[in-house]
Automatic annotation (TrEMBL):
It comes from Roseicyclus mahoneyensis. Pfam families: DUF463. This is YcjX family protein. It comes from the Bacteria.
């Protein structure tokens, strides 16, 4: 175990030297991680970002695009031959075709390389001419992201936390009943273990649909080729003695195997090489689901963001593999579901949700920012008179019925504490209002030459994440 850990560290150091030398003497690479929980819109974000970097007519907030210093942008094969390519063309066709629809959600890791030919500023621009900057975008399921918080837990602490959450949710009733009839100290019987794992997975699926965020282990929801393996055949148990050969002892062993053989390799292969990070959050969906869902989201984000290792590294440390994320964007998505007069409130709520994580990142030397965005704008705004008062609405095509509808989802509070305080105190509903959410379909587009898909603040997000490197 110790030898393996040392070998991993040496391997990462050698890889870090290669990356550092490449960035210094050849073509610099920005490795952007796009993460977020389910329904946050990762696929749409990447598709629209790439489309708007290829055709930059809607990117005035990106200084290099506004000044014309980005002379060309083009897609290239990604450098990782073992990672599937992000299917940009298929996703863009889904969003911009004659009958637009949302693309399928992320189900596995994928990557895309976009290369930008950029004219440097100042004296260097007159001497060296344009240079090529590579943007490597890494996408992976939000469900897997949740597992990063497990790395610092053992089976007993994870079980206690998971069962505490499950006690308050009716979606876990079947699993709780199964657990009542289970003796954790009994000898392991594989059929009984499989039933427990199946019932826990069923609960996780129902909890996710209900709007809860912290549904671990994440691979239970998207198992891929691990389905049915012992590494995915365990579930939380109440504290008990764990004699050799017992169900409790085996579940604890499988939990550690899950971390060592599933979570850690994923972390090393992808997270450890990230330069910049965007964390997408469906804050509106959590608010609509209620105080408990919002508090669950806050806790999930706190656990996740501890794995990003934020902060700037010294020159030598960078060469030796001490990579750190030096810019993190916390983006509340689906801003097009609100009138623009409420966007600042949504951004403030997003900032409050990740306040603890932002303070840690800022202290470590990373730059952070919270923002309300829509990677693809699916609505238009209008103002109507209601009972003699003007009300800002958004209008779009409903996803389920295909009919046009105008929505005022409710006024978000000016002070985020009006939501976060009842959420932290365990309230079961909002006292001061009900926040509605409608699911809109993407609108048919008629794009002018040179224009990417319409968005809200995607250019500002790109400036924060990439602008200093362009």
């Amino acid at each position: 175990m110790v030898i393996g850990t040392i070998a991993d560290a040496v391997g990462r150091q050698i890889e870090g030297v290669a990356r550092g030398m490449s960035g210094l003497f050849f073509e610099p690479v920005i490795r952007l991680g796009v993460t977020g929980l389910s329904r946050a819109g990762k696929t749409v974000f990447i598709t629209s970002l790439v489309a708007n970097l290829l055709d930059r007519g809607r990117m005035p907030g990106l200084a290099a695009a506004r000044s014309g210093r980005i002379e060309a942008a083009f897609l290239q094969p990604q450098p990782d031959d073992t990672v599937p390519r992000f299917d940009f063309e298929t996703h863009l066709a889904a969003l911009t075709g004659p009958t637009p629809h949302w693309p399928e959600s992320t189900r596995s890791v994928s990557e895309l390389r976009l290369s930008l030919r950029v004219r440097p500023t100042g004296l260097l621009g007159g001497v060296s001419g344009p240079r090529t900057v590579h943007l490597d975008i890494v996408d992976y399921p939000g469900e897997w992201l949740l597992d990063l918080a497990l790395l610092e837990q053992d089976f007993a602490s994870w079980s206690a936390q998971a069962l505490t959450r499950a006690e308050a949710r009716f979606e876990a009733a079947a699993y709780r009943a199964r657990l009542e009839a289970t003796d954790p100290t009994a000898p392991l019987m594989e059929p009984a273990a499989a039933v427990l794992a199946r019932d826990w997975t069923t609960y996780l699926q129902a909890a996710r649909i209900a709007g809860y965020s912290d549904c671990t282990p994440g691979r239970f929801l998207l198992p891929g080729d691990l389905e049915g393996s012992p590494a995915l055949t365990f579930a939380p148990l109440p504290p008990s003695a764990a004699p050799r050969g017992s169900l409790a002892r085996e579940f604890a062993r499988r939990f550690e195997a899950y971390k060592a053989q599933v979570v850690k390799p994923f972390f090393r292969a992808h997270f450890a090489r990230i330069d910049r990070q965007v964390v997408l959050v469906d804050a509106l969906g959590a608010i609509h689901a209620g105080p408990q869902a919002l508090e669950d989201l806050r806790q999930a984000l706190a656990g996740i963001l501890g794995a990003f290792r934020p902060g700037r590294t010294a020159f030598l440390s960078g060469l030796l593999g001490g990579k750190r994320v030096d810019r993190i964007l916390f983006a509340a998505t689906k801003a097009d579901h609100l009138h623009h007069t409420q966007h600042d409130r949504l951004a403030a709520i997003m900032a409050a949700l990740v306040a603890d994580a932002r303070r840690r990142a800022d202290f470590a030397g990373a730059q952070t920012q919270a923002m309300a965005i829509a990677a693809l704008r699916a609505t238009v705004e209008e103002v109507r008179s209601v009972n003699g008062a003007e009300m800002g609405l958004v209008r779009g095509t409903l996803l389920d019925s295909g009919k046009q509808a105008a929505l005022h989802p409710g006024d978000l509070p000016t002070d985020p504490a009006a939501l976060l305080t009842p959420a932290r105190s365990g309230a079961d509903r909002w006292l001061d209002g009900d926040y509605g959410v409608m699911r809109f379909a993407p609108a048919p587009l008629s794009l002018r030459p040179g224009d990417g898909p319409p968005h809200i603040r995607l250019d500002r997000a790109a400036e924060f994440l990439l602008g200093d490197r362009l």
